[in-house]
Structures are given as structure tokens and as C-alpha cells.
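DATA SHEET
Item: assembly model
Revision: 1
Owner: S.N.
Input lines:
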Amino acid sequence: MTRPIAPDRIEAVRRFNRWYTQRAGALRGDLLATPFPLPQARVLFELAHRDGVTAADLAASLAVDPSYLSRLLSGLESEGLVLRARDKADGRRHSLALTAAGKRAFADLDRRSRDEVRGILEPLTPERENRLLGGMHAIEQVLGGAESPASPFTLRAHEPGDLGWVVSRHGALYAREYGWDATFEALVAEIGAKFLREFDPGRERAWIAERDGERVGSVFVVSQSASVAMLRLLLVEPQARGLGLGRRLVAECMRFARTVGYREMVLWTNDGLHAARHLYVEAGFTLVGEQRHTSFGHALVGQTWSLDLGSQRNDPDP
Amino acid sequence: MTRPIAPDRIEAVRRFNRWYTQRAGALRGDLLATPFPLPQARVLFELAHRDGVTAADLAASLAVDPSYLSRLLSGLESEGLVLRARDKADGRRHSLALTAAGKRAFADLDRRSRDEVRGILEPLTPERENRLLGGMHAIEQVLGGAESPASPFTLRAHEPGDLGWVVSRHGALYAREYGWDATFEALVAEIGAKFLREFDPGRERAWIAERDGERVGSVFVVSQSASVAMLRLLLVEPQARGLGLGRRLVAECMRFARTVGYREMVLWTNDGLHAARHLYVEAGFTLVGEQRHTSFGHALVGQTWSLDLGSQRNDPDP
DNA sequence: AACATTAATTGACAATGTCCACTAATTAAT
DNA sequence: ATTAATTAGTGGACATTGTCAATTAATGTT
């Protein structure tokens, strides 16, 4: 049961491939403008990052024919950049390493490559840079699956456009994952509008998590009373789950709430949201009340959780 | 005055380049799995799309050495796929064309290439496919500037997540372009929430414009009274401006409003929004009132525009 | 000990790409 | 009109890049 694919989608991918292949000829896998030809540069790059590998490992990770690699290594060895040493444990294997000269050569190559990329990014506006990085990240993630390494996330305060993003992602994700209807997105929009209108910078805060210029999570702390803070709109994008982002966001809220002087933090959620529940339990929240309600097109059980901010330190950091 | 670039951004671009270069080795510029080697396939592809070009043109558009191209063409000619004919006007030039066999060969190649890309897209969820296409589009647009051809946009009804997107983009764009503060984003969120809560499918509608799976515009029609429709939240992303999208969105609203039986359409805007003003004038709206107000951190002049839906047909389509 | 397997290399060769020189046709300059 | 300069395309020579099968030496298996 294969899914039908729109022809224009296929064309768009092909166009991108053609375009990028041609451009990549210019970028040369980011290793242009180095004194080394691309295959040699790739070997140097890999050796600089993984010292002591064997030729077979290297051939596998560079997706290069072993015989070709052997010749490349011979060349680099005769230039004094690479050292091939027979493995003591297994005499068939050679362990490879850069010599001091090889390390210098790589440092130079690396600097040129960075400068080249910097030269591409510099003329862009920050917004276009974000668009570019976000696009690259999306492609890596979709096509690469788990292959591509997860880059770390960063947290920042909210900016124009963030609130709408929070609304959008709540609406889309809860519709998809739980089948909630449009009134949920409306509710989030109302909560968000109220937050912006009544924002008290000293006692309230929103965090937006980003990865490679792309928003991947959010959380809000709003003032419910002089001593009670409310945690709201906690969201972690599916592609950023499992990185500890949810825990970090909750921890950030607790730290802020303590710093500002709240004595209690509460939050409202619904049963069935197990990942979130886990986070709250872990952070020390306890369930203080439940009430049935019909909302968002479903019969749900709303839950109120509470945490005493004074009694204990739940932040595991020193 | 170059802008400082964060090192992790540079690393992210380099990582993508390395990754994609390696993967593109597998995709081979989307022309893998064809009976032709890549350079020949590229020539066939180009000739199939631009009949009668000269070798120099071809060499330029493929970014290939003329002498190399000459040899490639010789090969293809001896296989009976390409015809080289001396130009009558200029005896130095040869005009190139595919033979019937060449066209068949290309058709086969093209089909295989499409099948290959289809095979990549099929296992993806529609959401991941959108992410992929959106990412590719973003990269082409940012790096390619105006080079990459603009693909056409499509309109669709709103879905979960769209409303938040409208809020987000209004907030971000008006902050950037006019310096409006967060209360504007809050206002849009309130308008959006109200739309979702009181949505009357028979008499109200929202359109989201997409290009390559990426949202690039919006417009809403809401009921103000039995006979008066209100046009709201018209937005066109900067990267999609100049495509006639704004005109199309306004036209869509008018058509819908007429179909549903409204007699008048009104809208509220502010002076200084010149691109929008132009669209409204063009569609036949007239300015019916102005009032000063201080909102969004600025002293503004609000404007009410109106259009009699019965008196004239402003839709230029047949 | 005989055999199979593995890591790395070598030989042979094909594909791909680059540089320079050259021819023929055309255009520009005198 | 003749000469010089330019342009389109080609061929020679060569370097780079990549592929495949065979070989060597070390290790593992029976």
C-alpha cells in the first residue's frame, strides 16, 4: 500500500538534486579552496576527527573503495602527513594517524573551509541564515533518519512570531496525536494573547528552544498570584524528543520561579499525556485535583498539579 | 562591516555539505539507476528540455568543459542519440538535438529517475515529505537567490496549526517591517481564536497558500452581518511576493463572498501598508473611513475599506 | 595442518575532468 | 578588401578519480 506522490513533489526533489549537485561542485563538499584535492581532504578530515582508525573503517565511513583509499593513503604518507603503523594485536591491520605535519595541514584546511562557509553566510540576513540552516536540518533529519548527529538545543526568550508558532504547533500536534479539534488551537491562541497583553517581564517568562535556528520547543511561566506561578504551554517537537529538552524546560521554569520569589508552581494538563506527566512527576509535581470535562471534541479528565518551590530543591544541577 | 557568524552555524552548514555530498554520491544528482553515466545523462536531460542549443550554451549551463562536452557529444552521436547540425547562419556553431532514439532514451532515463525519487518519498509521512520539500525550497531560495525557478502556489482551506502560523507570521513580519510591538501579535491571536471558536463553514472561510509544501500566505473571510463579509489577516510572505498571490487571495475572497450571498465586503487596515492598499484598490475597494489610534506601539491611522459585491464584477477571470 | 576469512595492497583499466593548442568561421579594424 | 582579433568547436596529452579482480600476509576455523 504505497502512498501516491504528487508529480510536482517529485519534480521539486529532482530540481533540488540537480541544482545542489551543480552547486556542490562549486562547494565541493565544503572543502574547496584547500590545497588538497577533495578525496585527500576528506581523508585528512576523517583522520583528524578519528585518530587511530584502520583503513577498512575509514573506507567504510568515507564510502570509498579500499583500494582507492590505499593509494590515497600512500600519497599522504609519502608527503609525510599520515603515519601507517602495524597493529600489534592484529598484524593485518594498520592503524592510521596524522603526523604533526598532517595535523597542521588539516588545521589549515579546516580554517579555509570554515572561512569559505562564513563567506557564504555573512551576506545573508539572520532570518535567511535561519531559513538556510533550518532547511538543511530538515533535509538531514528526514532523509538521514537517525544517522545525522543531534545538535544541541539552545533556549532563548520569546520574540515576535514565537507565540504564533507555539499556537501553531500545539494545534497541529494535538490534532495529530490526540485528535483534538480546532477549539484547542483557539484556546492556546487565547492563552497566548493574554500572555502577550499582560506580560510582566519581572515575574513572567517564555522560553523558546531552538536547534540549528529552528524552533523545537517552548514553555511559559505566568503569574497566577503573588506567590503562585503557573507553568503553561510546554511543548517539545517530535523530532527533538529524547534529548532531555522537556526536562530542561521544566527545570528552567522552576529556577526562574524560585529566583523571582514564587512559593508554589501549578500547572494544568489532561490525563493521557504520558510523556508530560512523566516530566512533571520527575520534577516533583504532585497531582492535586482532577475534574472531568468535555473539550476539544473529547471527554477528558483535566488534572491540576502542584509543586512547593520552597520545600525542596528538585534541580539536579549543583 | 561583516556580521559575526556563530561557529556552530558554520559547523552545521559544513556537516550538511559533507553529508549531502556523500548522499548525493548515492543520489547522483537524481540520475542514478539509469543505463547512462552521469555526465551523459546530464547532457541528455538538458537536450530534452532545450532543443537546438549550441555546444557552448550547453557547456555553460551544465558547467562542463567544452572539450569534455565535445567528447561526450561525439559518444552520444555515435550511439545515434544526438544529432549535430551545422548552423546555417553561423557556420562555426552546431545546433544540437536529440534523435528519436535519443528521445526514447531520455524518456526511459526520466522515468527511472522519477521512480527513484518516488521511492525516496513514498516511505515518508506526508508531514515529513513537507518538511523535506520545504527544506529544499528554503535552501534553493536562500543560496540560489533568483536563480531557482519559482514554483506555483496552491490554495487550500485551513487545517490544524495554520491559524498559529498566521499569528506567528503576522507577529514576526509586522515587527520587522513596521516595528509593531507584541500587542499586534496578541490581537491577531485573538482574532484567530475567535475565528476558530465561531467558525461558520457555510459563510466563513480561510485560505492558506502553499508553495512546495511551505505556507506562504493567508486570507480570511468572516461574517460581520448577514449581508456584510469582512476580509481579514491577508498575508503574503516576502519570498512569495511578486507572484500575484495577494491578488489571487483577494479574488478568492470576493468569489467566495459572492457565492455565499454577501452584498458587501469590508476590511480594516492601516495607512502605510502600501502593498496591501494597492491590492485593495485594484480589487475595487474604496476607502470609507479613517480614524487615528495608538496601537502596537505606534501612532497609526486606521482605515476602513468597502466593496459593493453586487454592483460590479471585479474578478478579471472569465 | 589445511582451509577459509579478513585487511590491505597491487595491477590493470575505465571514467571523468583539465589544459593547451589548433582549425574554421565570423567579426572588427584598418 | 585585407588583416587581425575573436569565437565555436575539436583533438592531443595528461591528471585525477574510481572500479574490479587478483594477490599477499595475517588470522581464525576445523
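QC remark: The longest strand of chain B covers residues 298-308.
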